[in-house]
Amino acid sequence: MHDIRAIRDNPDAYDRAWGSKGLSAQTPRILELDQKLRTAQTALQAAQSRRNDVSKLIGVAKGRKDEATAAELMAEVELLKVEIARQGEAERAAGDELRGLLAALPNLPAAEVPIGEDEAANVEVRRWGEPFAIASPKDHVALGEALGLMDFEAAARMSGARFTVLKGQFARLERALGQFMLDFQTSEHGYLEVSPPLLVRDDAVFGTGQLPKFAEDLFRTTDERWLIPTAEVSLTNLVREQITAEEALPLRLTALTPSFRSEAGASGRDTRGMIRQHQFYKVELVSITTPEQSNDEHERMVGCAEAVLKRLDLPFRTVLLSTGDMGFSASKTFDLEVWLPSQGAYREISSCSNCGDFQARRMDARCRRSGEKGARFVHTLNGSGLAVGRTLVAVIENYQDEGGRIAVPQALQPYLGGMTHIG
C-alpha cells in the first residue's frame, strides 16, 4: 500500500518508479480521485456542521413559538439531509476507487535495483561451487521413476497435473531435507520456529500483497479462506494490527509448511517433473525490522539461505532481480539459483525480498521505541530457506552416478540413519 501524502508531495517519483516496472503514469488518476475524496469530505463535514447548527436553531425558534422560522429551518434540514447523502456517496465512491487503485499498484523498487523488462536484465552478484562433472546426466524424473521412488502417473490419477507421489527413500529424503533446513535456521541462524495456520482469511493475503491482484494464483476453500501460497503469509501476519517494541526487533521467524499455488500464469512451463507444483514443502524465513535494520537484515537473510546450499555442497549463483522480474510486494529481491545438470542451467530455488513498509501499511504493523508516543511502520522481509521440492530435485540430479544411484549429502546422513546412497 502507498502513502497518499507522499504521492501528493512527489508524484513524478512514483510514476518513474512504476514506469520502471512497465506501468503507465498512475498519479494523474490517483491525484484526481484524492481531490474528489477531499472535496467530498469537506462538503460533507460542512453540511453536517450546518445541519447541527440548524437543528439547534429550530429548538430556539420553537421555544419562542416562532413556527414560521422553525418551518423554514426544518425545510433547510431536509435539503441538508439530501446534500449529506449526496456527498457521503461521493466520498464513498472516490474513496473506494482510490483505495482499490492504490491496493493494485506494486511496491516501488529500491534505487539500486537494475531497470529492465524481465529476467534478461537481472544482474549476477556471485557464484559458489563448480557444477558437478556428470557424463550424460539424467533428470530427476528419469532417475526417480527408474528407482521406483517417484510416481507421477499415480499422482495424476488422483489429483491431476503438477502433483507427485514420492515413495520410500525419496519420501524420507524429502522429510530429511525439511528437517535439516529447519534445524539449521533455528540452531545456527537464530530463527524462531513457528507452526502457523495453513488457512487464512482475506485480510491476511491482502496484507502480504497476494490480494486483490493475484487471486487466481491461490486456492480458495468453500468457506472463503485461502490456502497459503507460502508461510510468508502466516508468519508476516503475526504482527498485523500490532505495535511491537523496537527493542524486540528484529524478529526472525521460520516455518516448514506445505505451500499451495494454482500456477495460473505458468501454463506450459516446467510441465515435466517437480520444478513447478501445485503443492510443495518450503522452509520460509521472515524478518520484522525497524527501517534502519532492513537493508542489513536483507543481506543476512540471503546469507542464511545460501548457507543451506553450501552445507549441501550444491553449486549456485546469487542474482539481483530487475524491476520487471521482481515480485509485487518487493522493493529489492535476490534470487538463489541452483545448478541442475539435466538442464545445464541454474534454476531458482529461493527468493529473498525486502518489502520495506509496503506490507506493513497494508497490515497496520508498527513499532515504537520505549518511552516514546509515536509509532512507525515496521519493515518486513521474506525468503525461502529453501524450497524443499526444488532442493530435492537438485540433490537427486547433482548426486547421481552412472548406475542411477543417488549419493546422500553428508549433512543429510544423520537424518537418514547414516544412509550414504539411495538405490
Please describe what this structure looks like.
It contains twelve helices and 18 strands. It is elongated. It has helices at 4-9, 11-19, 27-63, 67-103, 140-146, 152-159, 168-187, 202-207, 232-236, 294-311, 358-363, 388-398; strands at residues 123-128, 150-151, 165-166, 192-193, 199-200, 219-220, 226-227, 243-245, 251-260, 279-289, 316-320, 332-340, 345-354, 366-368, 376-377, 379-387, 406-407, 421-422. The model has no long low-confidence stretch (mean pLDDT 96). A hairpin with a 5-residue loop joins strand 6 and strand 7. The protein starts with a helix and ends with a strand. It has an eight-stranded mixed beta sheet. Strands 5-7-6 form a three-stranded antiparallel beta sheet.
- Helix and strand succession? HHHHEHEHEHEEHEEHEEEHEEEHEEEHEE
Radius of gyration in whole Å, from Cα?
28 Å
Largest sheet: 8 strands, mixed
Oligomer: single chain
- Uncertain runs with pLDDT below 50, 5 residues or more? none
Number of helices: 12
Strand order of the largest sheet: 1-11-12-13-16-10-9-4
**What is the CA–CA distance across the termini?**
51 Å
Tell me the helix content.
40-55%
The count of β-strands is 18
Shape: elongated
Provide key terms for this protein.
alpha+beta; three-stranded antiparallel β-sheet; 423 residues; eight-stranded mixed β-sheet
Secondary structure layout plus pairing:
Blueprint: H1 4-9, H2 11-19, H3 27-63, H4 67-103, E1 123-128, H5 140-146, E2 150-151, H6 152-159, E3 165-166, H7 168-187, E4 192-193, E5 199-200, H8 202-207, E6 219-220, E7 226-227, H9 232-236, E8 243-245, E9 251-260, E10 279-289, H10 294-311, E11 316-320, E12 332-340, E13 345-354, H11 358-363, E14 366-368, E15 376-377, E16 379-387, H12 388-398, E17 406-407, E18 421-422
Parallel strand pairs: 4-9, 8-14
Antiparallel strand pairs: 1-11, 2-3, 5-7, 6-7, 9-10, 10-16, 11-12, 12-13, 13-16, 14-15, 17-18
